[in-house]
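hey team, just a heads up i'm posting the complex here instead of the shared drive bc the drive is being weird again. everything in one block, sequence lines first with there labels, then the predicted structure for the whole assembly after. its two chains so it's a bit long, scroll down
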Amino acid sequence: MNEIEIFSNAFFGLATLLVLVGGVVTVGARNPIRGAIGLLTTIVGIAGMYLLLSAEFLAAIQIMVYAGAVVVLFLFVIMLLGPSATSSRDTRTWSSRYLAAAVFLASSLSALLALAGVRGETVTRFPHAPSTLGTIEGIGHELFTTALVPFELSGALLLVAVVGAVAVARGKQPDPTLLPADRDPPRKEGAS
Amino acid sequence: MTPDHLVPLEYYLAVAAVLFIIGSVGFLLRRNLLVLLMSIELMLNAVNLTLVAYNRHLPQNHAGQVFAFFVIAVAAAEAAVGLAIVLSFFRLRQTVRSDEADLLRN
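-- predicted structure starts here --
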């Protein structure tokens, strides 16, 4: 075991810790701000794993888009909602909480057992990768030749998502063509 | 980098599987709409990790990483629209519990 192997194993262990602890915090925390920080931890851990898997471009995109935009959006909405974002007595009974812990424990144990079964020479080692794997040139070339149609469609999808998010979040506005006296009077609960 | 120094494929798949199970259990058992959306992001991240790990295992093209790229784009769009829906629902009911979303129930 030379230093490269020790370092890559330690880095993988750290990334796994971030991913799994962040995941448990995300689904288990009562305060959703704590859950959002758990989600951020998971995303950073996944980005670390992308670095180990020769996916540098994807790791950068993960940090920029997921950690930098999606989590920030979650935090904005949580703060907009205020104290109502935290729901008390979230899970129905104590039994569902224990069921969740049991399912998680069973899955982790089975994953560990499956790994222990293939320990040694039967473990799948990665082959040599070309030096262009995961680079911007490599992904960009594939994105604009083989995956051109999905690329353009995802641009249209993002446009539709932006318009849709604005339209949904805006709420009902009073009809501007009516006289002020004839417009919809504000409802008692939650006026837009 | 010579391959023997790298963590083998099954370890990544195991981490992705456990993360997916964490996300799905959180999605099924929590009632807070925000936690539901965050659990969806966890599941999508688990799938992305599986895709990228397999792409490293079969490195002749970038199919896995390009797929994961699109998954990230779709997840961002879905998070935006989902949070807009949560805001509208909050405006209507002053709560984010999914139990209160029962207007279509007979």
